[in-house]
Amino acid sequence: MSRILIRGGLVVTAAEETHADVLVEDERIVALAATGSSVAEGWTADSVIDATGKYVIPGGVDAHTHMELPFGGTFASDTFETGTRAAAWGGTTTVVDFAVQSVGESLRAGLDAWHAKAEGNCAVDYAFHMIMSDVTEDSLKEMDLLVDEGVTSFKLFMAYPGVFYSDDGRILRAMQRGAGNGGLVMMHAENGIAIDVLVEQALAAGRTDPRYHGEVRRELLEAEATHRAIKLAEVAGSPLYVVHVSAESAVAELAAARDRGLNVFGETCPQYLFLSTENLAEPDFEGAKYVCSTPLRPREHQAALWKGLRTNDLQVVSTDHCPFCFVGQKELGRGDFSKIPNGLPGVENRMDLLHQAVVDGHISRRRWIEIACAAPARMFGLYPRKGTIAPGADADIVIYDPAAEQVISAETHHMNVDYSAYEGKRVRGRASTVLSRGTVIIDQDRYLGRAGHGRYQTRATCQYLV
User: Is the CB of residue 353 less than 8 Å from the CB of residue 270?
Assistant: First the structure.
């Protein structure tokens, strides 16, 4: 039995901030006591970590990643090994990735394929959502079985006709099933049928540059799909979680639904908070680096997203980490923006970017931990095992230096991708020590983890439902 004592830090959770020492035994947190108290002074341990002047925070929970995702004739460039190692460097100790059902195949086959990719390869703990690409009577029955096994969330797409797209009838059926079995339906809310018309018209008119990716995926089509998803969920009596919300009008739809007492939730991502259509318009095809869906919006949308995070109309910040190298992958869309693989790297940057938001006054320290750790853990049935620092919780702990300065760059990041979406951005704060289930996996500038340390996590149902 090994004991680690973390002394002298400011423990920050979603609920409180307190100067406390934290005692870890094997894989779990066993006790907290006020720093300097007789209780804390009486503790002994095999090793002591001095956290003086630093924050002691829960490991981040990134509830939206895509490692090794097949897309547009290629694959996301991070494997489960490289992607989870990069997550650890950035202070994220749990990722929830998406297993994919192929059309004509079962949910089980898709889940098994993703287990095979991840097992023995992850540096941090992991879980799976299930992408439903083919809603049939058989796959609806499988939803019940997966919920019982701890795969309790199912993603559907109103976008990407011919690939992931589900029509309203299929979406309604899945939502009805979720209402019965407790599964949370996650929605990519864009009107893909209308978007395809606009894509065809733009290309026919010679508008082929990356900037047009954002122009055809209109804000109104995100808002319309968000509204429609909310109404379908209301008909089904189902909870709804809308992924990667990027537009002010979509936030307004979520806020209105929540004001009516509906179990409707929203997630945004750092790219929508820190990047904009200005990046998509960068010359010499550089804008391709920023092609993702939903797309980046004009900068004025950012204020609405920050407000939504403060008012809890948006509950979670995840990354939608889906990296494609600029050379050889993003370049597939030269001359045709519709062929640019959709996705950005970010799993390593999320915690630091959101701490910068604390520095900039957008959110409080506790709200930082809420949206990056506690809320995703509660939303997807991992709390209080993950997302907090409390007796009994997994010892996923980050010693975070709020004074450290760094410049985000592809030269220094650990993601397996040849560019950074935030190249040259200076931020304050970084993880100095990272523990995953009581094991130190990052110590200053040393990686001490290993592939296979990460353990698969079964999940309970959403803990926010009323």
Answer: yes
3-state helix, strand, coil in the chain (%, to 5): 35, 25, 40
What is the Cα 425 distance to its own chain's centre?
A: 21
Across-strand partners of 430? 401
Report the C-alpha gap between 278 and 211 in whole angstroms.
9
Place of tokens 């001490």: 448
The pLDDT confidence band at residue 369, using thresholds 50, 70 and 90, is very high
Other residues' Cβ atoms within 10 Å of the Cβ of residue 128: 25
DSSP characters over 233-282: HHHHT--EEE-S---HHHHHHHHHHHHTT--EEEEE-HHHHH--HHHHT-
Q: Which helix (H) or strand (E) holds 21?
A: strand 17-25
Model confidence pLDDT, tens digit, residues 188-220:
999 999 999 999 999 999 999 999 999 999 999
Reference 251, options 231, 274, 267; nearest CA is 267
Are the beta carbons of 415 and 82 closer than 8 angstroms?
Answer: yes
**For residue 23, what is the enclosing H or E element?**
strand 17-25
* Cβ 171 vs Cβ 310: under 8 Å: no
Name the token pair of 363: 């959110």
pTM for this model (two decimals)? 0.98
State the average pLDDT over residues 233-252. Answer: 98
d(CA 68, CA 242): 23
CA distance 178 to 195: 28
Q: pLDDT per residue over 301-328, tens digit each?
A: 999 999 999 999 999 999 999 999 999 9
Q: Count the neighbouring beta carbons within 10 Å of the beta carbon of residue 259.
A: 10
Q: Report pLDDT for 198.
A: 98
